[in-house]
Design goal:
The chain has 261 residues and is α+β, with helices and mostly antiparallel strands. The protein has 8 helices and 4 strands, in the order H-H-H-H-H-E-H-H-E-E-H-E. Among the domains are: 58 residues, no CATH class; 97 residues, Conserved hypothetical protein from pyrococcus furiosus pfu- 392566-001, ParB domain (Alpha-Beta Complex). Helix 3 crosses helix 4 and helix 7 crosses helix 8.
């Protein structure tokens, strides 16, 4: 019959057998199972952290240069070259028109003949530029062979000074709310610009261009600022103007003439 001591000895021997059966590299008793569990768990975490393959290579993985920058540079270069060519052609056009009326004031050539005809028109090799410019001059009652222009720095502008056609258009355009169906480019924008300039600085120092006729003055250039001046000063105002007297007419524009002009 086994005693209590026999049972205790049997239990102790079984515990020692379990400890000896545990692999040494897993550490002390019971550590092997826990360490193995941690290794398996860490392996699962590592696999979960790895991105799933998509079949799409990462950006610049193969050192491929983005094409947009190169295209943009070429585009900008082409635009710049295009502007240079346009400016060169415009300068040549201005110089050619200037040669038709070499004694005329540069301001009149630039603001009336060039802007009104040469700048915004698409001429080709068959265009009769000189013929069109001479026609504009003749329609105004002027001659390209003489300088008829006087700069009047203190011109008295009133609505009654204008001939019937200019007066009708000045009144009909109603402060810039209508272009009378003429299809004037950027009409409202240009009126807004002139209105803002006049509100800020008073009467413009940029001359209007006028032709004096028996029935009154014709306004050749300066429509937007003249309309806005009358909108701001309905009773009239004093400002600068280049004035020419149509052929066959005598007299000098009202106002003070600047010496040397």
């Amino acid at each position: 019959m086994k005693t209590l001591r026999d049972y205790i000895n049997l239990i102790e021997s079984n515990k020692q057998g379990v400890a000896e059966a545990t692999p040494r590299h897993f550490g002390p008793k019971g550590a092997g199972t826990e360490l193995a569990r941690q290794i398996r768990a860490n392996g699962e975490l590592d696999r979960n952290k790895q991105p799933k393959p998509t079949g799409i290579p990462k950006k610049n993985e193969f050192n491929i240069t983005e094409p947009k920058a190169k295209i943009q540079v070429k585009k900008d270069k082409g635009v710049a070259e295009g502007f240079e060519q346009i400016n060169e052609l415009r300068d040549r056009m201005y110089q050619y028109i200037r040669s038709i009326v070499p004694t005329w004031p540069e301001y009149v050539v630039q603001d009336w003949l060039y802007k009104g005809r040469g700048k915004n028109k698409n001429y080709n090799v068959n265009s009769d530029v000189k013929g069109e410019i001479l026609e504009m001059i003749a329609d105004a009652g002027l001659s390209p062979n003489t300088n008829p222009w006087q700069l009047v720095p203190n011109m008295k502008f009133t609505m009654d000074m204008f001939g019937p056609v200019s007066k009708k258009n000045l009144i009909g355009r109603a402060g810039g709310t209508s272009d009378l169906g003429m299809g004037i480019p950027k009409d409202k924008e240009r009126h807004s610009t002139q209105a803002a300039l006049i509100q800020k600085g008073g009467v413009s120092k940029e001359p209007a261009i006028l032709i004096k006729r028996p029935e009154g003055y014709d306004l050749l250039e300066g429509w937007h600022r003249t309309i806005q001046h009358f909108h701001m000063y309905p009773n009239g105002y004093t400002g600068p103007a280049y004035v020419a007297v149509a052929q066959g007419q005598q007299g000098v524009a009202e106002g003070k003439r600047r010496d040397g002009e």
